[in-house]
Design goal:
It contains twelve helices and 15 strands. By secondary structure, the protein is an alpha/beta fold. It folds into two domains: 35 residues; 188 residues, Vaccinia Virus protein VP39 (Rossmann fold). The chain is globular and about 75 Å long.
Amino acid sequence: MSLFEAREEYRRGRLEKQEYIDRMQEYHALLLEYASFIEDSDIRSIEIADGCLIMTSRNAGVEMICPSIDRRAAPFEILNFGSYERQEMEMALRLIDPGSTVADVGANIGWFSLNVAKQNPTARILAFEPVPSTFEWLRRNIERNKIENVKAFAVALSNRDGKAVLYMRAGDCANASAANLNAGEEVMETACITRKLDDILSDAPLDFIKCDVEGGELFVIQGAKKAIERSRPAIWAEMLRKWSAHFGYHPNRIIELLEGFGYRCFTVAGDRLQEFCRMDEDTTETNFFFLHREGHAAKIEMLEGR
């Protein structure tokens, strides 16, 4: 019996008052349990407001209005596992200088964009999120945090301008992809516009790219080749063999493409970078940083800790 069902049963006289109180207390006890549960997590507080749930991060005070259907949204990931890509986020923040222009490709509800905006208020963040419902949560979270240095775009970045269909598992909009990654499961579809980052930026500078688009990372990078050659941005990309296979390529193609632009590939080990050469069947890492040999030489020397 749900909270609403229990209340309705009491109002209709089908539950005695004490039985209703006892049943409801089982639910209320969870509120007190959550107060202890979050102590070891990166969530500082949970607020229940009219019609919405708001979680506030411990370090930067980012307030996230949580979507009702996305079980893999960052705040829920933090509740489940204590943190969400903490080491990678800390590394990204070290790589983003004041005044940087940052592209958040696959922004979801805004966890990365808002953390950067809060901790680097002079940065300019371009957040790209093509799923309409998720884009609305992103917009609300930008507004909730009174952030003025994040501009949101309701488009998918790729290597061409056009249209595409995104597929996502029901209840998991963070899994949205231009390929159906969830064969045999209940899948939702939504149409979107695709653009090349090069066309959006024109000749504007670009200092950092975060790219997490469930297998379509190669195409995002191909659509940003001019900006990468011109500005030599640091790049944080998710690469998984199981996702890229749906698009007909291996993640090593991304490494090879960026090597041609003068980049080295790294993984994060604690607070340091560790060079990474090629992905094989034993690779367990999924998050990778690309730094330009010349453009980021000082940062590489510092972060490799040699």
